[in-house]
Structure formats: C-alpha cells, structure tokens
Amino acid sequence: MTSDGLLEDTSPKDSYLIPRNIMAEPDYIEDDNPELIKPQKLINPVKTSRNHQDLHRELLMNQKRGLAPQNKPELQKVMEKRKRDQVIKQKEEEAQKKKSDLEIELLKRQQKLEQLELEKQKLQEEQENAPEFVKVKGNLRRTGQEVAQAQES
C-alpha cells in the first residue's frame, strides 16, 4: 500500500506485450457436440503397406545387429550396371573397328576367294545346264589348244 491508500499495480502497464497463445483453441475441444466431425490423423498408405512394414522391420533388425544397410539404392546399382555394359560394348566395337593391317589383308583375300568360288559354281551350273553340242565344242577347243601348245614346245 502506498500513502495514498491505493494499491500499487505490480503487473506491467502494457499488457499487450505479454506473450499469449497466438492460436485460438478449436471449438471441438471445449464442446462435446456429437454433430461436429472431429479431425483424425490421415492414414499413410505407404506405412500401412506390408512391404514397407517388412522392410522397416528388417532395417531395425540390421541396425540392432550392427549391420549397415546397402550403401547404394537398387536403381543406382541398375544404372551403374547398364553403364558398365554400355562401356564394354563400346570397347568391343572399337576393337573391331581398329583392325590391324594383317587382319585387313586376310579379310580381302578371304573375300577374293569367296568371289572366285562363287564364279566357279556359276560356271559349273552353266555348263551343266548347257546343251550337249556346246559341251562338245568346248572340249574340242581345249584339245585343239593343248595340241597347239604341245607342238610349239
């Protein structure tokens, strides 16, 4: 009490400076009105899935045992494997492109031999399909040439 007989106000004069709850309390907490629909927490379909629960249980067990989970996710592993396969294919293609001079010459000779064999087969087929008088005429020419060569030598 003061000498004037008035009570001295111990609370601060600026009451708006006192922090209060900023958010208002919802109405459904005070009233038990059955007509109001009370909010419920939404169900997360990922956490309720059986696969997720099994995976989570496995991770917890591995953590208790001290086993570290796999360092890389499955997608990253697949992508790395594809990249490795692609690099291997590129190297094989480059190796085929970079052939030595010997390999090139061998391929040329092989192609020539194949062409010669095809020509021989065509000639044989033509001779087999040719009429008899053409065959006799060819034989006469050959024997005539052989006789001429024998006389010259």
From TrEMBL:
Residues 64-100, 122-153 are annotated as: Disordered. Pfam families: DUF1151. The keyword RNA-binding does not apply. Residues 74-100 have a biased composition (Basic and acidic residues). InterPro entries: FAM107 (IPR009533). Keywords: Coiled coil. This is Family with sequence similarity 107 member B. It comes from Ictidomys tridecemlineatus.
